[in-house]
Amino acid sequence: MKVFLEDEAYEGLAAIRLFWWYYKFNLLTYHQTKSEQLKFLSTTKAAANLKAFILVVGFLSARSEATEQEALVARGDYLVNSIVACGNCHTPRGADHKPIIEMHLAGAFQVDRAEFTAYAPNITPDRETGIGAWSDTEIIRVIREGVRPDGTIIGPPMPIRVYREMSDTDVRSIVAYLRTVAPVKNSLPRSKYNIPLPESYGPPVDTVPDVPREDTVSYGAYVANALGHCMECHTPLVKGAPDLSRIGAGGNVFVKPHGMELVAVAANISPHPEQGIGTWTDEEIKRAITQATSRDGRPLQPAMPFYFYKKISDEDLEAVIAYLRSIPPQAIE
Questions:
Q1: Per-residue pLDDT tens for 289-308?
Q2: Domains in the chain: boundaries
Q3: DSSP H or E stretch at residue 59
Q4: In 3-state terms, what secondary structure has residue 34?
């Protein structure tokens, strides 16, 4: 914080000096004829002042752009490695079922179902096997619209339905961060589908504004859905799509997730007092999300990306909890 404030003060001082030179130049030349003004500009001092003016403008502009880019990368780093948890599917896992750091986002996850066999692709900046040759606009379109640069449609389990609601700021931040990831050459098969894929997931996504954090429930809904896609697992499926009339009811079964020898069932995370989390305290819900520990101390199955969720900020956790408490209680049928 101290460094930030010092940078702010330095830039503020530069701005004051810039204004002073600009004011001085205009004051001296306001009442002069054109020839007199040209003569003034030809003097060594005036030339130096003008040069200083141009340099300061260039410096402030470059500094502003660099600061904005740094902020985008930092936000993207947080999103990718916490609530969005891209590595849960896109990073290979070791024998301990934890992500292999050296293969960060190089693609790995395989989902075998009767409807499809899907492979999570390489999303590192490798130009041959990853997304290094794609433009920012193309990557954003892939994330929010499910359309690759070659025009083909991405199928499940990529949660395009909710990613369409991701804000412009956050999707740009994710792209900015992906550009900083170490490129890894890792070629993977193309996913195969035994079901027809949609022609599109909807009209092209135009502009999606940021959700005000002051509206805790709305922001929590945004974090849980557009970013965390929680309800993609915790809402019952009907013909492969979430039944939004039963949002949060859980019940989906996952066999051998990530190759682990277990069967996981998505929990009811609605505020139902008996079957859901209606009587849980905020701290108990936080512990379940970030530490994989249930209310009774029982360890939760590692199908959920707890490795990433432990990095979610307190602000985002509290907003998610406020949202979960606002949805209708659901009974498991």
A1: 999 999 999 999 877 899 89
A2: 2-72, 81-210, 213-333
A3: helix 44-80
A4: helix
Q: What is the DSSP string of 77-112?
A: HHHHTTTS-THHHHS-B-TTSSB-GGGTTS---EEE
CB burial of residue 26 (10 Å; 0-12, 13-18, 19+): exposed
What is residue 63's predicted lDDT score, i.e. its pLDDT?
A: 63
219-259: pLDDT as tens digits? 999 999 999 999 999 999 887 778 989 999 999 888 887 77
DSSP 121: P
Q: What is the pTM of this model?
A: 0.81
> Which residue, 154, 172, 212, is CA-closest to 73?
172
- Using alpha carbons, list the distances in angstroms from residue 240 to 75, 159, 169, 243, 310: 32, 12, 30, 9, 29
Q: Looking at the domain that runs over 213-333, which CATH code has it been given? A: 1.10.760
Bridge partners, residue 99, by sequence: 93
Q: Which residues contact 232 (CB under 8 A, 6 or more apart)?
A: 157, 159, 161, 162, 242
Q: Tell me how far apart the alpha carbons of residues 295 and 285 are, in angstroms, rounded to a whole number.
A: 8
Tell me if 197 sits within 8 A of 153, measured CB to CB. yes
